[in-house]
Amino acid sequence: MGREAYRSLYGDLTKLKDDSVLKDPAAGPDDDDELFELLLAVSDWIDHYCNRHFYPRAETLLFDGSGGDRLLTPDLISVAELAESDASGRDFEKAWEAGAYRLLPYNAAPLRPWGHPYGAILSLLKGGAHAGRGDGFAAGQANFRVTGVWGYRLFAEASGAALAAPVAADDAAMTVSDSSQFHVGQTVLLGASGKDAAPAEQALVTAVDSHELKVSRGLNGSAATAHASGEAVGILRWPASVERAALIQAARIWTRAADFEPFYVDADVDTDVRLLLEPYRRTPS
Questions:
Q1: What are the strands of the beta sheet with 232-237, ordered from one edge?
Q2: What's the domain range around 89?
Q3: Cys-Cys link to 221, which of 25, 58, 70, 214 (CB 3.0-4.6 A)?
């Protein structure tokens, strides 16, 4: 079984195999592939249970115009482009300038460790410089397009390490100056241009060998790009209760039925794990 994932895991193998979590001495290196897949299955279940995903995903989504001044969205971290379709409904040529809208709620701060996502876009098109363009999101079907980063939070913790050699867009490994903070299952961040900037690329750590990290590139809709030597490497962090829920449930499922694959998580989730996740759960719309 290989270590492949299409998304982030809400925990890493080092934390999962710690004596305080997985009290199973039989879970040695030979079990790492199965533990990786189990963490992936539990992470998927958490997203379905909470009706949201906690990792940042770059994507373009379409929305129906509300006819008012607000456009309700799924969990939103940042917007790269907001565009409106023309009368034909086929071309999105009317790009809104940044000053024409604002993200709500005002104090969401999804790039901070304590932050929450945005959940709506407020139109500021009310006369003045915007006269003649209407007062908001014209009613229609799939007539607004939003390109951005979606998810609960994007907080990058500094690892203290940097790339020790250039990385090409198609490289499946990268050499870092210090690998002590990296573990299998982590999502690393590359190419951030500032403290509050979204990273250019996300990559999933699938193996650590001395100073070399084997990675799955272009994770969560990000683009795999070239990176220069000396570029800082960050680590994506999750809300503490979400990570704890993933580690506890994965450890318990492994202890109960390590030989059963694939792992069916939904029927085997404990009450205390659900309670950890309850504050993050959204009611399906």
A1: 155-162, 232-237, 187-190, 201-209, 212-216, 173-175
A2: 57-150
A3: 58
**Residue 117, preceding peptide bond in cis (omega within 30° of 0):** no
- Tell whether 39 and 83 lie within a shared domain: no
Q: Residues 4, 175, 10, 21: is their CA dihedral positive or negative?
A: positive
Other Cβ atoms closer than 10 A to 19? 8
Do both 40 and 90 map to the same domain? no
Q: How far apart are CA 43 and CA 242, in angstroms?
A: 9
Note the pTM of the prediction, 2 decimals: 0.88
Q: How far apart are CA 199 and CA 261, in angstroms?
A: 35
Q: How confident is the model at residue 132 (pLDDT cuts 50, 70, 90)?
A: very low
Please state, in angstroms and as integers, the Cα–Cα distance from residue 247 to each residue in 38, 70, 276, following that order.
10, 38, 12
Closest by Cα among 97, 91, 103, 52 to 74: 52
The set of residues, in sequence order, having a beta carbon less than 8 Å from that of 264 and lying 6+ positions away, is none
CA-to-CA separations, 189 to 56, 127, 220, 222, 260, in angstroms, rounded = 11, 41, 11, 10, 33
Closest by alpha carbon to 250, among 52, 50, 10?
A: 10
215 and 196 share one domain: yes
